[in-house]
Every structure is written in C-alpha cells, then in structure tokens.
Amino acid sequence: MNMLFWIAALATGLLMPAARAKADYEVMTRNDIFFAEHDGVKLFGDFYAPKGLDKAPVLVAVHGGGWQVGNRKFYSNWGPYLAKNGYAVFAIEYRLMKPDVKTYPGAVYDTKAAVQYVRAKAGELGVDPERIGMVGDSAGAHLSALVALAGEEPAFSSEYRSDPHASVSAKVKAVVGFYGVYDMLAHGSTTYWRGPATIFRRNFLVQRLIQTAESFSRLPRSVTPRSTGI
Length: 230
Hints:
Layout: H1 3-15, E1 27-38, E2 41-50, E3 56-62, H2 78-84, E4 88-92, H3 106-120, H4 122-125, E5 127-137, H5 139-150, E6 174-178, H6 184-188, H7 199-208, H8 210-217
Parallel strand pairs: 3-4, 3-5, 5-6
Antiparallel strand pairs: 1-2, 2-4
C-alpha cells in the first residue's frame, strides 16, 4: 500500500461526510502564514486550499526528519495534490533539535498550536473546524500522534498558556502516520540507536521522552497508534 492510498482513505473515510465524485479544484496557496511564537521562535505554515469549496476538510501536515532536519516544503507537492481533490492542507514547521533549543516538549506544543490555529481561523481559511485531521511522516507522525492522543496531558497542556489560541481545542478526527516512532522505550533498546551519529538523538528521545512513553501506556489500547506496513 502506498502513501496516496492511506491519505485518500483518511480523507474519504473519516473527514468527508459522504463519498463524492473525483474533484478537480483550482488550488489556492498561501505561504508563510504565522501561526505561533514559542520562546522567541516564530512558526509558519503553508496553506493549500481547494478554490470554491466552502468548509473544506483540512489536514495539518507535519514533516519528518528525525526531529533534526526537514521543513514544511516537504508537502509542497502533496499539498496542491490534495487541495485539487478537495482537501485543504496546512503544512507546518516546528522547532528542530539543536543545542539550547527547547525542542521537547516544545515541538509537541508547536504542532498542537498549528491545530488550534486552524480551528480558530477556520472561517477565515474556509475550512470546517469539525473536520480537522493530521498527516505526518517519521518524526512528524510521532508528533501528530502525541497531539492527537495525549494533547491534553499535563506534559503538553500546561505551558504556552498565553498563546492567542491556547484555549481552543486541539482535538482531531484522525491521524495518518507514516513510519512513525511510537514506542520510545523499545527503540531505545535496539541497535539502531547505538551508532555514534545517533547518541544525541538517543539521549534526547529516550531519556527525556520517558514520560511520553508512560503517557501512551496509560491510554486504552483502542486509542493507541496502530502500525501498518507501507
């Protein structure tokens, strides 16, 4: 199964109220939309929308890159493609792992703020605040899953209370995560993390995300992430 199939399954089966004929909308693009500022770092996203479709379903798209590299331009092809087919996309950035940067849990808060922004600005963006989903790959899948499943946990809801949209719900209808890392404890014990180039990442993820793993362990099995071979 490829990435297109699973995105289509998400959008058609979970975000759309009913199946409809294949669309071919003109795409409207808005780049560099400011959605939050955390610890002095301004965060931006690119928005792709189907022109003429009111209250379109929307996906908040979170790029991968091992929490260290990558940017929102990863979705510069997927965004227009999905918008052409009737699904708005807000491709975002978040703080990447660097020395002296509050990346964890900061990156989770950054991602959560994007969902809150989309819901708060739904009327302006022309999207449906009740049909918000998330899509992410690798690190982006991990961050999306955390926001969707544990966004109201104290670890991810007690900071940045002065955000303009801090009181807005960050709940989403669904998440499609591609090759995401969900079980940090298991990954911390494998040989994948033993190479010299991954020492910093291992320390960052395993040592500091122990509380994240504990948060997931308290969730009912019915709402924990399911891994599907792609």
